[in-house]
């Protein structure tokens, strides 16, 4: 039994670094592919958005003198590199994929439309949606909210390095306590760094629940899909 039929899985680009300081850790990439394959085998339809922070982050670039629009475009390209890497790892594991990009760049990937994504998922492919929203000033969090709403996902699963949402950053504050569940409004009013405010508000307005969990522990994705309570559920 699976708790969700169709998911939008948001992956952190920074997590792809593994124990490296930059780029893609092939071990971590392989672990992600293994977990996604497990869930695909359960019959779950999977759409994925992955960040690019392991390669280039537009906002950081702007702080170092890059033009903000060009910096964000560089960040979008970083997400395409990660998407191709994940697609390659999944295909090597025997999982068919389709990479769709928000900016036209055939033959790297097909141009994204909602209907292409849904058709591919319904045919058994894992769909990886790259290049964010295709517009500057929007994060991949907002991109994942948008894509999750568009593809009519049951939930957005936000895979992070921590096992849920806490009152403060648990990596910095040892007294931080974890929420098992929390409302969108409380996330926003408390200023909790789950996703940016735009992304959270979009999910709230379109009734897309968010589940935050630690993707870096192998087997956790299957636990979430099976209904185990290992993260934090964000809902109305």
Structure commentary:
This protein has 236 residues and is an alpha/beta fold. Helix content is 37%, strand content 19%. It has a single domain, classed as Carbamate kinase (3-Layer(aba) Sandwich), CATH 3.40.1160. It has helices spanning 26-40, 58-63, 68-92, 114-122, 140-150, 184-190, 197-205, 220-225; strands spanning 6-11, 45-50, 97-101, 110-111, 126-130, 155-160, 165-166, 178-179, 181-183, 210-214, 232-235. A 9-stranded mixed sheet has the order 4-3-5-2-1-6-10-11-9, with helices on both faces. A two-stranded antiparallel sheet has the order 7-8. β1 (6-11), α1 and β2 form a beta-alpha-beta unit. The protein is globular. The model has no long low-confidence stretch (mean pLDDT 94).
Shape: globular
Instruction: Tell me the CATH superfamily.
Output: Acetylglutamate kinase-like
The CATH topology is given as Carbamate kinase
Strand order, main sheet: write it out: 4-3-5-2-1-6-10-11-9
First CA to last CA: what distance?
25 Å
Unreliably modeled segments: none
Q: What is the CATH domain class?
A: Alpha Beta
Number of discrete domains = 1
User: How many beta-strand elements?
Assistant: 11
Task: State the helicity in percent bands.
Answer: 25-40%
Helix and strand run:
EHEHHEEHEHEEEEHHEHE
The pLDDT mean sits at 94
Which CATH architecture is right? Answer: 3-Layer(aba) Sandwich
- Please identify the oligomeric state: single chain
